[in-house]
Amino acid sequence: MQSEKIISTHDIKEPGIKRISPDETLEVCARRIIGDYFRKMMSYKEGAKDGTDIEFVHDMRVTSRRLRAAMDNFADCFREKPFKKHYKKIKAITRTMGAVRDLDVLIARFQREVDTLSEVEQTDIHGLIAHLRHEREEARKPMLTLFTELEATDFETEFLAFFVGAVCNSDTER
Amino acid sequence: MDEVAKAHKIIGVAPGRSYHENARIILPQKIEEVWTWEPFIRDAARREELHNMRISIKRLRYTMELFHVAYRNSSQQERLVTESNTQLLCAESQQPVTDSRYVEFLAVIVDLQEILGDVHDCDVVLDVLTAYANGAGAEVLAPSVATLIARTKETRKADYETFLRKWEHLSTRDFKQKLLSFLAK
Fold this sequence. Notes:
The structure holds 2 protein chains of 2 kinds. Chain A is mainly α.
């Protein structure tokens, strides 16, 4: 489902990108951008786990997509095997978040639609919304399992060590 | 859910060369990926290809957002070259400004992504309503579900027509070639 906030193209807000000098090498820029996107994505994790505010899942998913776009473009800056391993994890994050977000968007849409129907007609759509809520709870399970796995394997530290490494340690301290 | 095509492998990237130079290697390939779906879009029923075009457009959008710093306002670029004014890069109040034409091109890409997103949303809603109706097992479709299906079909048709109108308008204005030429400079 389409779920992205409309970003004003007159005010491009990307983590760290404005700090980049286009004269620097791609490798240096790639490490900085991927590190910044990754930290931004992970900053939404606790909110996504909590699940009360649906925007955390949305923000984490969108940032994971931006991160993947950067990784797709900059893949040649990194060793192939570990790159692929990390890429797969990010893809899994996008996928599991996507399943939850799609249901959030559908529930919100049908909740808006229900007000436009007659009282009698509303019953069916309330049933549909209840069904989708149940599916959402089911869709959250793989997401939570993935988070647990990422935490148990110290994925965050490993990812940053590989992509950011010693080159941009000053960035990690920001 | 529609199957999403993988991003095309980017070739020719030079990690040791500048961000600026690599922008000119990567961005044209992202544009070409979008246009690989062009032959299918005049058929409203090709939902998988329309969905894949949306994803390719989104990848182009994100890539353009990544590289906006490599397309500065030309007067600023001149000042940087002639004055070697490194402070211009550092001072928060004097952040380099992205070329306005780049921003305009990006706005078109975002617009296309959003309208294709609306089309896709309708396809998903229709899938959900149909599955729900079938799962209910009733021989006659519930009036509320029938109402929403009819309404969503109408919205989908209108959104698709809007998209196609915009696309054809851009095609007649040679948008792709103009974008490629601008990005190559």
